[in-house]
Amino acid sequence: MAESKANTTHAADKLPAVGFTEQLEPEALLGAATDTLKINDLGSWTQPAPGLYPHQWLWDSCFVAIGLRHIDIKRAQQELRSLLRGQWSNGMLPHIIFSDQGLHYAGRDAWHSERHKAAAKKVKTTAITQPPVLAEAVVRIGEILDTAARRRWYKEMYPALVAFHEWLYKERDPHNEGLVVLMHPWESGLDDTPPWMVALRKNRPWWGKAVSGAKISPWLENRFKVRGNVPLNERISIVDLLTVLHNWRELRRCGYDLQRVLHHSKVPLLVDVAFNAILVRANTHLQRIAEELGEMLPVDLQFSMQRSKGALRTLQDADGMFFPRDFRTRELLTEPSIETFLPLYSGVISQESADKLAAELQNPKTYWLKHPVASVPRTSKYFAANRYWQGPMWVNMNWFIIDGLRQYGHHKVADELLENTLRTVSAAGMYEYFSPIDGKGHGGAPFSWTAALVVDMLQGLAIQKVSRHAGE
Ligand code: 9WN
């Protein structure tokens, strides 16, 4: 207990000053967000949060670039370029590029990536990926470059993007369904979201049960120190974490090869909603980039991209909600989570489906709590307001949902969510996630993607005000 208290103070000490008021003060907020990005800037890439996350994460850097483009476009471009250092020769973009400094429990040397012939040669990386937000970040930067500079930028990033999307389909869509399969919860980015935890617990090692009941558990909690300065009860439980690590070991045994995993391991394989929704949108961006460059995308990739648009709907239940699917059994994992709203962002679902999602989103008993959007509905047995991915509001999820709502004409709720998100961060500070009940910040701090997406949302707020004014 004493440790949690001390750690909370430590995290808060690092936070750049904000208004800390319920009132939205855009200038103070922008200042605090900009300071955060500076504090976490390690030269050519940005760490997600000091201490807790000292390496370069794939989707974090994409979010960082989306915000940074408004402050320093060259540095934003550099953020994405630095991600390409880690690209494997088969096209895979790894979820972490390790720095030489700092420790994280996804340990630098434990991956044995170098044993894989395609692994990056000059940097150490993990051997799994993360949601493909790169195309989005490339296009967002492109939006504010002049035509000639944009073409140069697209030309530079195009080969890496094509290789990444081709790898996703070739390696992770073995049945040519148009949906890719994930081998580990870290690939989803929503690490301990309930559907993944349900799936993982089915593959808990024999010693898992013993650890969960035994008194050594608190000892392990402290021994592992996997949660940086964050109170233990806000993170994944030690038993779940050990299960996650066990599954990672299994993947390593199979050389991270999907076919070998399929045949030689019981590791859960999930067709994830958020990942695939993000991929569908990324495909749209990639198509746009190719058109602007006058390039033809590889034919196989074009077919896969086309298939994906319709395939997303196979993750929908009879009530119109979306769920991940077990790749082996083909059953939906119907534990509800924020993932259900990501198909809005994909832009390929029907207006009717989008309207249903928008209605569920605004349900005050489930997702639309005082500080929406809760990452797990309050009615779920997994709901925990401060435990990461099991209840808190995350700024990146809100950013996707706002974008998706606008694509389907739900501007009023998008505006409301935008203002509510900014107000929550303004009051709490640049935290990793926020209680959807009282708005307090939790997790790593100061946290980069919160800051970067706040910068982007403040631009959105300004545009929204200008257009409202023009309409008056
Ligand atoms: C493992 C860095 C990352 C995010 C993920 C978030 C968390 C790591 C962890 O932090 O994951 O990859 O230690 O739990 O869940 O989305 O990219 O911010």
Give your account of this protein's structure.
The chain is mainly α. Helices cover 51% and strands 3% of the residues. It is built from 19 helices and 6 strands. The chain has helices spanning 2-13, 26-39, 58-68, 73-84, 134-143, 147-172, 185-188, 194-201, 206-213, 216-224, 238-253, 258-264, 273-293, 299-311, 342-346, 351-361, 395-407, 411-428, 448-471, and strands spanning 56-57, 96-97, 270-271, 325-326, 433-434, 441-442. Strands 1-2 form a two-stranded antiparallel sheet. The protein has a two-stranded antiparallel ribbon with strand order 3-4. A two-stranded antiparallel sheet has the order 5-6. α9 (206-213) packs antiparallel against α11 (238-253). The protein starts with a helix and ends with a helix. Mean pLDDT is 91; it is low at 1-11. The site of (2R)-2-(alpha-D-glucopyranosyloxy)-3-hydroxypropanoic acid has 10 residues, from α3.
Low-confidence stretches: 1-11
The number of helical runs is 19
How many β-strand stretches? 6
Q: Rough shape?
A: globular
As a whole number of angstroms, the C-alpha radius of gyration is 21 Å
The ligands bound in this entry are: (2R)-2-(alpha-D-glucopyranosyloxy)-3-hydroxypropanoic acid
User: Mind summarizing the main beta sheet?
Assistant: 2 strands, antiparallel
Order of helices and strands: HHEHHEHHHHHHHHEHHEHHHHEEH
Average predicted local confidence, pLDDT = 91
| Helical fraction | 40-55%
